[in-house]
TrEMBL record:
The protein's name: Precorrin-6A reductase
Molecular function GO labels: precorrin-6A reductase activity
Keywords: Cobalamin biosynthesis, Oxidoreductase
Biological pathway: Cofactor biosynthesis; adenosylcobalamin biosynthesis
GO terms classed as biological process: cobalamin biosynthetic process
InterPro entries the record matches: Precorrin-6x_reduct
Length: 252
């Protein structure tokens, strides 16, 4: 897709992840015009290279309109694997606006040898499977901690980038942005004497060390499985996606 003045149409990256920033940087370096979209959930997001817009589009219709108005030549869904709504919207809007869509979908983490994982379908189930008296490390971000508020029979420590609006009395909130090296994770888990960890199977390299640390200490992990997404042409790494974009001559 090329504009009438011969200039290639921009690429829109739906971002909010480290890989999305890496993609934006590589595509900007290759001379392409890149726009990244962030949801606006965090007050001080790490900013990608290239142009950036912040905030929702207004559902499928809004995103399709944006794709058309901005003459987007390629839509890349590089959002977090648990951001299911925007990924579904991307598939639908790309179809409506007739814009090619590719998805960056990193592989899931696998249970390390000898480690104990309790796999659950959703966060509410994670709260259900914790035994009474558990001392729990929540490594799930800020948005879904309310799923655990009713478990007054357990102790909770939540690690978050930004403080949550509210948390029950007695909860410990650790404000920190990763990556955290494996030894630091082992020290943290041991220091607090956690009996359980709750995590989402994001597959991110930057946050995998907590999984290795839990395995090392024999701490069971309640692992929330990924939501299912509508099919899209998907790539497991920034490199394979960039290779495809080059080979396919996108945006064309
Ligand atoms: N969910 C997680 O665990 C997680 C973890 C780390 C980072 N993130 C990042 O945080 C953002 C929000 O995640 P979520 O799980 O809340 O999303 P979500 O539930 O899939 O999306 C909810 C709504 O937020 C808006 N939205 C989401 N991502 C957007 C983006 N990149 N640009 C513009 N609008 C966006 C869309 O609003 P409209 O319908 O109005 O367009 C969407 O319908 C994403 O960028 C994601 O990559 C999420």
């Amino acid at each position: 897709m090329t504009q009438s003045n011969g200039v290639a149409n921009p690429i829109l990256i739906l971002g909010g992840t480290g890989e999305a920033r890496a993609l934006a940087a590589a595509l900007v370096q290759s001379g392409r015009r890149v726009m990244s979209s962030l949801a606006g959930r965090t007050a001080n997001p790490l900013m990608p290279e290239g142009e950036v817009r912040i905030g929702g589009f207004g559902g499928v219709e809004g995103l399709a309109r944006y794709l058309r108005d901005e003459r987007i030549g390629l839509l890349i869904d590089a959002t977090h694997p648990f951001a299911a709504q925007i990924s579904a919207n991307a598939v639908a809007a790309a179809k409506v606006a007739d814009v090619p869509l590719v998805r960056l979908e990193r592989p899931q983490w696998l249970c390390p040898r000898g480690a104990e994982w309790i796999e659950v379908e959703e966060m509410a189930q994670a709260a259900d499977v914790l035994p009474a008296g558990a001392n729990v490390f929540l490594a799930i971000g800020r948005q879904e901690i309310a799923s655990f508020f009713h478990r007054t029979d357990c102790r909770f420590t939540a690690r978050v980038i930004e403080p949550p609006e509210t948390a029950p009395e007695g909860w410990t909130i650790i404000g920190a942005r990763g990556p955290f090296p494996v030894q630091a994770e082992i020290d943290l888990l041991a220091l607090h004497g956690f009996t359980h960890m709750v995590a989402k199977n994001s597959g991110a390299a930057a946050s995998h060390d907590k999984i290795l640390a839990a395995a090392e200490l024999g701490i069971p992990v309640v692992m929330v499985k990924r939501p299912s997404l509508p099919p899209a042409r998907s790539f497991e790494s920034v490199k394979t996606l960039l290779d495809y974009i080059d080979q396919a001559g996108l945006p064309n």
